[in-house]
Amino acid sequence: MNYQWYPGHMTKAKRMMQENISLIDLVIELVDARVPLASRNPDIDELGKNKARLILLNKSDLADPKENKLWMTYFKDMGFHVLEVNAKTGQGLRAIQPKVQEACKEKIERDRKRGIKNRPVRAIVVGIPNVGKSTFINSFAGKACAKTGNKPGVTKGKQWIRLNKELELLDTPGILWPKFESEEVGKRLAMIGSMNDEILQMTELATELLTYLLENYREPLLERYQIEESGQTPDAVTMLGAICENRKCYKKGQEPDYEKAAALLVDDFRSGRRGRITLETIQGGEEA
Fold first, then answer.
1. Which residue, 39, 49, 53, 64, is CA-closest to 18?
2. In Å, how far are 62, 217, 219, 241, 275 from 223, measured between CA atoms?
3. Which one-letter DSSP state was computed for residue 86?
4. Which residue, 272, 268, 284, is CA-closest to 64?
5. What is the reported pTM?
6. d(CA 192, CA 212)
7. How far apart are CA 57 and CA 2, in angstroms?
8. pLDDT single digits (tens) 202-227
9. Cα 185 from Cα 54, distance rounded (Å)
10. More confident residue, 204 or 286
């Protein structure tokens, strides 16, 4: 399966961001804590050149806590300000305002020396589809000021949001990039729901996910679906069949419904019902 998705509105959204970047003091980039590198659009580094940067590891409650700490260190070592957050519950959001002030300390000091007082920091909120930007803005602002949805591509245009006298946010649509650097990146983005599911083959995606889980989270996987090992670790296809049985996914005549079981597995992973899982890990300081 070819994991690529770049609908036309994303080109327009990228152009809009480029046109507005001169107004911006700070780039707030949301990434999915389960795939911190795959969920970073490489165009953002070019867009945010010479701007203060803050990375939010969102959906951190769904990711392996041990890996969250390693990724925090990784991004700090790259020179970014970084926080671990859960936009849905509001966890970690209180730390953002002080972190914004810290990231924009030089800008605030320049304004003060020029006699400019009470000018808010202007931040652009960026990220790929379905990474939780609108949920973050609504939680941070304390009101539903940005559209949300569980499908990628809900936000279509820009909108400025005045949070307080110290901070204004520019919400932007989630954008991917025209060609992923590797199939692994596309695969991981498909797993977390940043592509349109209608273009995906769910059984193939589920098999890829199971292969990874069997290698890295085998015991929680077997426990979740009440599968007993018979002396030999099952492969992904065998596991999918076992999930059919466990979740009663059958067609007429008791034929296993692999498509339905695949959709259930992927949904379990995306929602965190499968436990806290990270698909990208750091080994020896490098992404693996």
1. 49
2. 18, 10, 6, 15, 11
3. B
4. 272
5. 0.88
6. 14
7. 27
8. 999 999 999 999 999 998 888 888 88
9. 22
10. 204
